[in-house]
Amino acid sequence: MKRLSAVVLAVVGLACGTVSANAQDKYPSKPVKILVPYAPGGATDIVARIIGEQMRQSLGQNFVVENKPGAFGIIAIEEMARSKPDGYTLMVGNVSTNAITPVIFPTKFKINYEKDIVPVGRLVDIPEFLLVTTTNNFPPKTHAELVDYAKQNKGKVRYGTVGVGSYPHYDMAYYAKKTGDLDMIAIHNKAGASGVIKDMMAGDAQAAFLNVASTAGMIKSGNLRPLALVNETRLPEYPDVPTMKEIGLPDVGTLAWQAMFAPAGTPKEVLEILQKASTAAMQTPAAQDAFKKQNFNVVPHKTLDEAKTWLAGELAQWKKITNEVKIEITD
After folding, report:
1. Cα angle at 233 between 215 and 261, to 5 degrees?
2. CA distance 50 to 280
3. Domain 128-230 sits in CATH 3.40.50.620
4. Mean of per-residue pLDDT scores for the chain
5. Quick one: which of 2, 53, 182, 327 is 20 to 30 A from 84 by CA?
6. Residue 247 and residue 146 in contact, taking contact as beta carbons nearer than 8 Å
7. Which of 284, 328, 315 is nearest to 56 (CA)?
């Protein structure tokens, strides 16, 4: 009888242990870390926090944002890629860190970017204006007038960027090439969009590609003039501003996307949970309201395979752009 009781207890204990293990294995069973390759306050950080909060509510675990700026995003990317592939260390990056950096700085990586990271999915993209300043009565009022002015004033038109090799730098350089190899001078300001805006207000820079959210106030006050929009359609708030496609330059300018990434080797079932949860997070009223205020487009992928194909296409596109536009980057 004692022997039978011992067997029964062993079986019960095994069953309880199995239930406990299964409960622990359910993802997520502990807080999830989201690395952001910038300091707090920028678009990528904002998106990560909005999505993380909504995923916390739906999945029942904290999604904690950790800011890891530096080295063009490489610090955050490598920490994420080297973490245990279990879904508990993720990254929200953008077109600069996760498409341009791997293309222009491949030798700076100590990982194989294309093999060691996987996209969970795109989250949002951010419309961008081609703008000119109105300081000193800078005359162009249309894209065509800007091109004509630059041709007539070779080497005198200065455009602002947020740093050498940034996507606003490539956007303007590509714009100059596509509109007749315009002779324009780049002025770099590492303070970000606010720094470029200050340069334009002072008349130190006359033109730039900048996102809609950061320039709305200056456009309303008349200090900046939008000439074209990088977006699929015109914005209701700016009905008279044509898209780049409408002015005949559909491949010029960057929709500054934000996306979620995970280490390669993360179980597919975990990636699918993250993909579905992040997509649902973007559809919540709180997220929709926050993104609408910033003019962010919600653009999730439907599947993991779609996300993988998309990232490969982004890398291919930036290889094409960087081959056509030669920018010397020494940092």
Report:
1. 75
2. 12
3. no
4. 91
5. 53
6. no
7. 284
Is the pTM above the cut of 0.90?
no
Tell me the C-alpha distance between 278 and 275, whole Å: 5
CA dihedral sign of residues 310, 315, 318, 320 = negative
Preceding peptide of 263 cis, ω within 30°: no
User: What is the per-residue pLDDT across 29-79, written as a single tens digit (0 to 9) for each?
Assistant: 999 999 999 888 888 999 999 999 999 999 999 999 999 998 989 999 999
Rounded to 10 degrees, the C-alpha dihedral 93/99/102/104 comes to -130
Distance of CA 269 to the CA centre of its chain: 25
Pairing of strands 32-36, 89-94: parallel
Integer Cα distance of 35 and 49 in angstroms: 11
Could you tell me which CATH number the domain at 30-125+256-324 has?
3.40.190.150
Please state the domain extents for the chain: 30-125+256-324, 128-230
List pLDDT tens digits, range 109-157: 999 999 999 999 999 999 999 999 999 999 999 999 999 999 999 999 9
SS3 224: strand
According to DSSP, the residues that pair with 42 across neighbouring strands are none
